[in-house]
From TrEMBL, chain A:
Protein name stated in the entry: Acyl carrier protein
Species this chain originates from: Actinacidiphila rubida
Task of the protein: Carrier of the growing fatty acid chain in fatty acid biosynthesis.
Chief localisation class: cytoplasm
UniProt PTM: 4'-phosphopantetheine is transferred from CoA to a specific serine of apo-ACP by AcpS. This modification is essential for activity because fatty acids are bound in thioester linkage to the sulfhydryl of the prosthetic group.
Database matches in InterPro entries: ACP (IPR003231), ACP-like_sf (IPR036736), EAL_dom (IPR001633), PP-bd_ACP (IPR009081)
Start and end residues of each EAL domain: 1-81
TrEMBL record, chain B:
Protein name: 3-oxoacyl-[acyl-carrier-protein] synthase 2
GO BP, sorted A to Z: fatty acid biosynthetic process
MF terms (GO), sorted A to Z: 3-oxoacyl-[acyl-carrier-protein] synthase activity
All copies of domain Ketosynthase family 3 (KS3), residue ranges: 5-419
Gene3D superfamilies given in the database record: 3.40.47.10
SMART domains recorded: PKS_KS
Catalyses which reaction(s): a fatty acyl-[ACP] + malonyl-[ACP] + H(+) = a 3-oxoacyl-[ACP] + holo-[ACP] + CO2; (9Z)-hexadecenoyl-[ACP] + malonyl-[ACP] + H(+) = 3-oxo-(11Z)-octadecenoyl-[ACP] + holo-[ACP] + CO2
PROSITE patterns: KS3_2
Length: 81, 422
């Protein structure tokens, strides 16, 4: 079970790998699309990588609700539980 | 201004090829007669009947940022690298609109490839089979679609007058440049980024071309395998890379004080309607393309001093092309220095017309025709002056050159370039 901090750090690595954004810029209040250069296609990659890393399922219908890094962290925390 | 018959010029060139990571290093290697063919180092190649290819000299991953590269098929990566070089070489410092010298609504992009994102298609199918549905990249479709190199280059330079991808197998790159010439000549655009790209070094295309008996199997002599016009030629060698040029209306180039390499005089196009892969043996279709070029432009056979031939090193194709030159130009062929640069670059399929146009532009610009290597025993049926050994100086004054490209399907495209009138 990953902690909130571990999830943020994990997402930061994933966003860095996919979009080339420095990990320190991946903060809870950042929007994937507007701040982190993650378009709708790259968001699918982020989701698949996060599912694998944190052992959760994020159905396609829920992805559109994950606007910010914080949204994704909360979702993953709940889904782990 | 007559919008229907404008003069078109070339103001920028770019390339990434088996001979070098840009047009300057490629040109230097062409003049030096260097082969870009080598043994494929990949494990998958070990048991194939063809184990040689002309692989890119500088891996695109060394140039493009990783987040960008991972969303582009290799063919689009090559095109983007060559287009960036050509764009900067033309003197533009930012994309259209941001560089006030070019209006996005008057800028086009026409980039072709023969087979599109074939490695993406095959690699993603392997992922689907081996790792499952979820692992297939969401970028697969925009990576594999054949218009992806054109679209990505268009977005890069902000081209809004039209983005196109003509597909005609190994004539695709030349057809793209011909299409771009027409866009400018007829007034649809003032500037067009155009060329060809290909990235098909993968076991399936290699085995498939090999099973057609189209490729050289001289695995023990990679650098000697591509030997256009030689009596011992036995097929082409697959190459990869891209060549892109910036075409511009002469007025537009003059207004911004751009350097003009050459005039793009025009094109001649025809189709064999003969066989899906075999060239028409008498060169009838190629001759028709050459005649159409003469009929459509003010080009004079006496001006043509250089031909960058299609000459892929196949037994039939090389001879048919020369027959066609003789049929249309007669004794004028005697003053044409013919170069088969595929002897060094291998055959880039849809990329060939792109890099060979870059080579032809530079041949006129520097007045030097590159040599044809591996021509040890010229085929007696080849009745033309093939440049061998050292590069051949081309004459002073107004001179013109042809770049020929022909494709499976019977597509014939001939482009004509000429030194600019001063």
């Amino acid at each position: 079970m990953a902690t909130k901090e571990e999830i943020v750090a994990g997402l930061a690595d994933i966003v860095n790998e996919i979009a080339g954004i420095p990990t320190e810029d991946v903060q809870l209040d950042k929007s994937f699309t507007d701040d982190l250069d993650v378009d709708s296609l790259s968001m699918v990659e982020v989701v698949v990588a996060a599912e694998e890393q944190f052992g959760v399922k994020i159905p396609d219908d829920d992805v559109k609700n994950l606007k910010t890094v914080g949204d994704a962290v909360d979702y993953i925390l709940k889904a782990q539980g | 201004m007559s919008p229907t018959n404008r003069t078109v010029v070339v103001t920028g060139i770019g390339a990434t090829t088996p001979l070098g990571g840009d047009s300057a290093s490629t040109w230097e290697a062409l003049l030096a007669g260097r082969s870009g063919v080598s043994t494929l180092p990949q494990e998958w190649a070990a048991d194939l009947p063809v184990r040689i290819a002309a692989q890119i000299a500088v891996e695109p991953g060394e140039i493009l940022p990783r987040p960008l590269a991972r969303k582009l098929d290799r063919s689009a990566q090559f095109a983007l690298i060559a287009a960036r070089e050509a764009w900067a070489d033309a003197g533009f410092t930012a994309k259209a609109g941001e560089d006030a010298a070019v209006d996005p609504d008057r800028l086009g992009a026409v980039i072709a490839s023969g087979i599109g994102g074939v490695t993406t298609l095959l690699d993603q199918y392997d992922i689907l089979k081996n790792q499952g549905v979820r692992k297939v990249s969401p970028h697969t479709v925009p990576m594999l679609m054949p218009n992806s190199p054109a679209a990505n280059v268009g977005i890069e330079v902000n081209a809004r007058a039209g983005v196109h991808t003509p597909v005609s197998a190994c004539a695709s790159g030349a057809e793209a440049i011909g299409y771009a010439i027409e866009m400018i000549r007829t007034g649809r655009a003032d500037v067009v980024v155009a060329g060809g790209t290909e990235a098909a070094i993968h076991p399936l295309p290699i085995v498939a071309f090999g099973n057609m008996m189209a490729m050289s199997k001289n695995n023990d002599d990679p650098q000697g395998a591509s030997r256009p016009y030689d009596s011992d030629r036995n097929g082409f060698v697959l190459g990869e890379g891209a060549g892109v040029i910036v075409l511009e209306s002469a007025e537009h180039a003059a207004a911004r004080g751009a350097r003009v390499y050459v005039e793009a005089v025009g094109q001649g196009i025809s189709a064999d309607a003969h066989h899906i892969t075999q060239p028409e043996p008498t060169g009838r279709g190629i001759a028709a393309a050459l005649q159409n070029l003469l009929d459509a432009t003010d080009l004079k056979p006496a001006e043509i001093v250089h031909v960058n031939a299609h000459a892929t090193s196949t037994p039939q194709g090389d001879v048919a092309e020369v027959k066609a030159l003789r049929k249309v130009f007669g004794h004028d062929v005697d003053h044409m220095a013919v170069s088969a640069t595929k002897s060094m670059t291998g055959h880039l399929l849809g990329g060939a017309g792109g890099i060979e146009t870059v080579a032809t532009v530079l041949a006129l610009h520097h007045r030097l025709a590159p040599p044809t290597i591996n021509l040890d025993n010229p085929d007696p049926e080849v009745d033309a002056d093939i440049v061998r050994g050292e590069p051949r100086p081309l004459p002073a004054g107004t001179i013109a050159a042809l770049n020929n490209s022909f494709g499976f399907g019977g597509h014939n495209v001939v482009l004509a370039l000429r030194t600019p009138s001063v």
